[in-house]
Amino acid sequence: MFLEYLEDLGYSDVEIKTISKSVSINPLTDSNLLYNIKSIYKFFSNNGISNNDFKNITLTIPFIISTSLENIKSIIKEYKSLGFSNTNIFTMIKEYPYLLEFPVSTIKTKYDSLLELGFSKDNLVDIISNYPSILRKDNSTLKKRINIYLNYGFSMEQVVKIHCLYPSLFEIQSNMIKNKLLSLEKHGFNNSDIISLISYNPKLLLEDDFINTYFSYLIRYGYTELDIINIMKKIPFIINERIKERINYNIKVLENIGFTRDNILLVTSNNPYLFLYSSDDFSSKINYFLDLKYDKDKVINLFLKAPVLFSYNLNTLKLKFDFYKENDLVDYIFDNPNKSIINTNFLNKRLSYLKNNNLYDDNKYDLFLDDISFNKKYKITRYELEEL
Amino acid sequence: MDALIRYGLSIEEIQNMMDCNEEISNVLDSSIKRIISILKNIGLSDLEIISIIEGNPFILSRDYEEIDRLVSCIKKLGFNDLVNLFNSNPYLLSLSCSKFEDIFNQKINEGLNKEEAISYFYYNLVM
């Protein structure tokens, strides 16, 4: 009758054989097994487990058929007490039926030992929901792996974050973690670069050739491996499919504006945030200058040599150039674009100081001296100027 | 996003920032307010803060405690004029404390004294 019920549920002959090998079926046990499987099936079905999922569960852990429904319910109750929702629990069971293997007493112990590793209750619900097999992992092994990250300089928050983002990291063996960190160092990243990179992109720990995996399109455009390493150091969050589309688009927009390929390689290597900005946004900044009838090549050169200008909003750019215009400094800035990084309010302070001391007319370009040179010449520091 | 709207950013400006950094949509208003508060405590005006976060929208998805640590770290190195520092280069606010120190120490190792290394950050795009 039990075996006939399995047939009714759609188990194949092979599947029925598998079950039969695992449970002791005889006239004494047959009615118990039938009662068990019917009640378990009904309970699972009421909680969203399909026929196929049920088959998969029983084939993975056939002993469940010999388990009473009360036993299964007490295991599920234990997970609920730890913060898992009903939906979570049954999704986890579908994915990883072995969860039902743990006796109630060990579930809490295992959970607590993971808390001791440094994960919070909320983290653990997320991690275990996405990666239920962690409950089977040996704690001392997990601790050893986590310590590798901590000893490298990752904070516990970062370790938790990367494992929540990518729970398969729990699978990586200790040697592999160390080798990967070393391999990233060999690429030219230092310790703090690597921590940033992995915090944003834990998948890097699993990639052998990340340059070609993520950046082949940039290599084809003309970026060297060194360019890409430097870009990754500046914007560690660059590894992202959505960003790839944006980058390709922004490169086209820059070409349409008039930047050559070499210009684009240079300006984006110096300021890779340009990859990420909305093209309307950076176009409007360049167009502001073109609408004022400044020479296009000069404008392109300005942004090329002073890519920080892309970070200023239009209002700030207007204020800067109003200041330069009022003080007849526009040509100087086009000839020395890197000076445009100096904050206008600060330039105003220097301007006032020089004018008040009748020093401005013969020394107007001293506005742009670095702090050391200005202090040497005028015996006043940045901080003293700010205090005036 | 209420925090950004109340702060004075237009929908278009916020949309540009979110296009650049999609994580902003997941950031709590309370976190944004804390970050703005840290920047105000440095002495930045509202207009300056708006320009900075538009220029570097990734600041908003940082943990505000990390930004706080960065600011303390920069002050400890001897920087006193953080207003001009961040106005000139909003990208600095994306650095971790250890990264900032690494860059600073690199300048010292290149032969600059402390004053020169500090000055370097005001006149060069450091990322």
Q: Would you write up a description of this structure?
A:
- The complex is a heterodimer of chains A (388) and B (127).
- Chain A has 23 helices and no strands.
- With 388 residues, chain A is mainly α.
- In chain A, α8 runs parallel beside α10.
- The longest helix of chain A is centred in the N-terminal third of the chain and has 20 residues.
- Chain A is elongated, with a radius of gyration of 32 Å.
- The relative contact order of chain A is 0.04.
- Chain B is mostly helical and 127 residues long.
- Helix content of chain B is 65%, strand content 0%.
- Chain B contains 8 helices and no strands.
- In chain B, α3 runs parallel beside α5 and α7 packs across α8.
- The two termini of chain B are 27 Å apart.
- The chains are: A mainly alpha (388), B mainly alpha (127).
- At the A-B interface, α12 and α23 of A face α2, α4, α6, α7 and α8 of B.
SSE layout and pairing:
The complex is a heterodimer of chains A (388) and B (127).
Chain A: H1 2-8, H2 13-22, H3 27-46, H4 51-60, H5 69-81, H6 86-95, H7 104-116, H8 121-130, H9 139-152, H10 156-165, H11 174-186, H12 191-200, H13 210-221, H14 225-234, H15 241-257, H16 261-270, H17 279-291, H18 296-305, H19 314-326, H20 330-335, H21 344-356, H22 371-378, H23 382-387
Chain B: H1 2-7, H2 11-20, H3 29-42, H4 46-55, H5 64-76, H6 82-88, H7 97-109, H8 114-123
Helix pairs in contact in B: 3-5, 7-8
Net shape of chain B: elongated
Q: Summarize model confidence as the mean pLDDT of chain A.
A: 91
How would you state the average pLDDT of chain B, rounded? 94
The amount of beta strand of chain B, in percent, is under 5%
Query: Order of SSEs of chain B, N→C?
Result: HHHHHHHH
Counting DSSP E segments of at least 2 residues, the number of strands of chain B comes to 0
Count of DSSP strands of chain A: 0
Q: What is the tally of helical segments of chain A?
A: 23
Provide the helix percentage of chain B: 55-70%
Radius of gyration of chain A: 32 Å
Strand content of chain A: under 5%
Largest sheet of chain B: none
What's the order of the H and E elements of chain A? HHHHHHHHHHHHHHHHHHHHHHH
The secondary-structure class of chain A comes to mainly alpha
Poorly predicted runs of chain A are none
Report the total helices of chain B: 8
Which percent range fits the helix content of chain A? 55-70%
- What's the end-to-end separation of chain B, in Å? 27 Å
User: Main beta sheet of chain A: strand number and arrangement?
Assistant: none
In terms of structural class, how would the helical and strand content of chain B be classed? mainly alpha
User: In one word, what is the shape of chain A?
Assistant: elongated
